[in-house]
From TrEMBL:
This is Tetraspanin. Pfam families: Tetraspanin. Keywords: Membrane, Transmembrane, Transmembrane helix. It comes from Sinanodonta woodiana. Belongs to the tetraspanin (TM4SF) family. The chain crosses the membrane at residues 7-24, 44-66, 73-97, 196-222. It is found in: Membrane.
Length: 241
């Protein structure tokens, strides 16, 4: 007969499996929105890989909870352990190299602005960024007039992209009060800091979920061992004294 801890562990493992399945669905569902141009191919590839991994992990978790198979439970435990170690390592490396990350973001933004010509592709990402963050240029709106592909065109002389406009279809002149004057780099920094606590909370919650899954796996593995070596003289053994 299953004990209370083993039943509870099975329920929790099943719930964890469902959560991982949901993570896969959410990731895959948003994949199409991440592949509009070349700038998003790498992140999209990473995201869909993580989604497939969560799907597999969810399958293993549900199977482990239902079957109580020791081998499956061990695999589930090992995968959770590897992911947990990877998360801790990524967090430490992210903190250590945070300055390099900031520099890389600024360099990438600078390159995107310098190559911007107002056409489809990576330019759409710049437009999206400026519209969503209500910003213009890298440090300020004047960046569009300093050696960019955009400024080299005669039809764009003295103008900024329409995505810098506060209201749709403005004159887009650098002296107008109709455009955003703040740079996008500072806005990105502010947004990151504002979301830092939220990101940390989600990471901690996910780590706790993984630890819970590992504990439940251990409980079910112990339960499986107890059933295997059940005393032959027990009430359910069928033996008669």
């Amino acid at each position: 007969m299953a004990t209370c801890p083993s039943i509870t562990s099975k329920v929790i493992l099943t719930v964890i499996g469902v959560i991982f399945w949901h993570g896969f669905y959410h990731t895959y569902n948003n994949y199409s929105h991440l592949t509009k141009d070349n700038l998003t191919l790498i992140p999209a590839g990473i995201v869909i890989t993580v989604g497939v991994f969560l799907f597999i992990l969810g399958c293993i978790g549900c199977l482990a909870a239902v079957k109580e198979h020791k081998c499956v439970l061990a695999v589930f435990f090992f995968i959770l352990l590897v992911v947990l170690v990877a998360e801790v390592t990524a967090g430490v490396l992210g903190y250590v190299y945070r300055v390099d990350v900031k520099s890389a973001v600024k360099d990438g933004l600078t390159e995107a602005v310098q190559k911007y010509q107002g056409g489809p592709g990576s330019d759409e990402q710049v437009d999206y960024l400026q519209t969503e963050l209500q910003c213009c240029g890298i440090m300020n709106a004047s960046d569009w007039l300093n050696g960019t592909e955009w400024s080299k065109s005669k039809i764009h002389a003295g103008l900024v992209p329409q995505s810098c406009c506060i209201k749709f279809n403005c004159t887009a002149t650098i002296l107008a009060k109709e455009i955003y004057m703040d740079g996008c780099y500072d806005k990105l920094q502010q947004q990151f800091l504002s979301k830092l606590v939220y990101i940390a909370s989600i990471a901690i919650a996910f780590a706790v979920l993984q630890l819970l899954g590992m504990i439940c796996s251990c409980i079910l593995m112990c339960r499986s061992q107890e059933i295997r070596y059940e005393t032959l003289g027990g009430p359910n053994s069928g033996l008669r004294v």
